[in-house]
Amino acid sequence: MTESNGKIRVVVVGAKGRMGREVVKTVLNDPQLELAGAVDRTLHQVDVGSVLGLGDIGVPFANRLGECLVQSNADVMIDFTNPAAVRDNVYTALEYGVRPVVGTTGMSQDDLLAWDRILREKGIGGIVAPNFAIGAILMMKFAAMAARYLPHVEIIELHHDQKLDAPSGTALKTAEMIAAERQSVRQGHPDEEEKLAGARGADFDGMRIHSVRLPGYVAHQEVIFGGVGQTLTIRHDSISRESFMPGVALAAKKVMELTGLVYGLEHLMF
Ligand code: NAP
């Protein structure tokens, strides 16, 4: 909180995107947060509010993240861009001592480890969350609990058809949490054969993950467990991008108290 009004100064990267514009509105409406800047590669010096249909808000778009972070004296950078852009954005934030809150999915485990190390060296915090929806966090938690008793499981994730990475970050995180609770299981018939490559989905520690991409979806996931004579389905639906916003606002505040990287919103909730 570098300014005298005591608010956390936030720069939003990817602010014109589907998630980014919701984040801008959330920051503007939260009394503890202040929109210090917004980055878009193509827009420069145009008022953010006028582009997002909010009327002029006195914050112009910047097209260079580094400059924006310095000029705005930012505390926190929130990134909802794409898997190719997020890496450079986080390293830029770290270079300027700005705390990253990352919703973009598709980065590597090596990146997470490297960011954690740099954050610890700098004595500041960062948060990467593959899903900021509180209901989705509960779905993952319940799925991990169920896997102890019903180890045969498949994950079906369903997203809009503009999503770049598959499987989703949420599906991978769910699979990791399930794998931590159950013994590895070779699922399906030992002699099963795919007549079309990929028919059985991706393999994560013996469990299958299926990715559906269709217009009309936002972000949805089913975790299906099979036991003798029974199945259990745990399902979460984000029916609008507003579902992610309470989690994003929580992360922008909690990150100020952290040192090192937190991966997953559940670590801020439970
Ligand atoms: P989107 O609508 O395509 O928005 C991405 C934005 O990032 C666009 O405005 C794009 O600008 C901008 N961008 C791309 N490269 C950039 C760069 N180098 N510097 C600055 N801005 C850049 O995508 P979205 O649907 O909002 O999703 C964004 C990300 O969030 C995806 O990875 C998605 O999987 C993830 N997501 C996470 C959650 C969660 O809860 N963690 C929830 C939903 C989505 P251009 O149009 O100029 O390319």
Provide an overview of this structure.
- This protein has 270 residues and is an alpha/beta fold.
- The protein folds into 2 domains: 8-128 and 242-269, 3-Layer(aba) Sandwich (Rossmann fold), CATH 3.40.50.720; 134-239, Dihydrodipicolinate Reductase, domain 2 (2-Layer Sandwich), CATH 3.30.360.10.
- The protein is 32% helix and 25% strand.
- It has 9 helices and 12 strands.
- A 7-stranded parallel β-sheet has the order 3-2-1-4-5-6-12, sandwiched between helices.
- Strand 2, helix 2 (48-51) and strand 3 form a beta-alpha-beta unit.
- Helix 1 crosses helix 8 (245-254), helix 4 packs parallel to helix 5 (109-122) and helix 6 (134-147) runs parallel beside helix 7 (169-179).
- The relative contact order is 0.16.
- The structure holds NADP nicotinamide-adenine-dinucleotide phosphate.
- NADP nicotinamide-adenine-dinucleotide phosphate binds at residues 13-14, 16-20, 39-42, 80-82, 85, 103-106, 129-132, 163, 219, 244.
